[in-house]
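subagent[fold] <- orchestrator: predict structure for attached chain, return tokens only, no commentary.
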Amino acid sequence: MKYEDWEDEATIISKYYSEVETLLKNVTGASKVIIFDHTIRRGEKEGEETPDTPESRKPVSRVHVDQTPMSGRRRVERHASSPAEAERLLRAED
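subagent[fold] -> orchestrator:
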């Protein structure tokens, strides 16, 4: 993607999601990747103070994970194509 593409949500979803899906499948051997959302974090411009809101997320200084084991399970249940698929994917976790 080009730098300018990161300003357009539709381009991020249509282009970057497929690039990440392909990368994750190639690196991990996964047969399926479900990307459910994303966060773009941007620093403030010189002389500008922007509140840290879900629409305007600031960079973080540490590595972190936004999902707990339980919330991860709920994400699978919410985003899998069917309850049967969610059950199959969660069973593979064990």
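orchestrator: received. Logging for downstream: Residues 64-94 form one domain. The mean pLDDT is 86.
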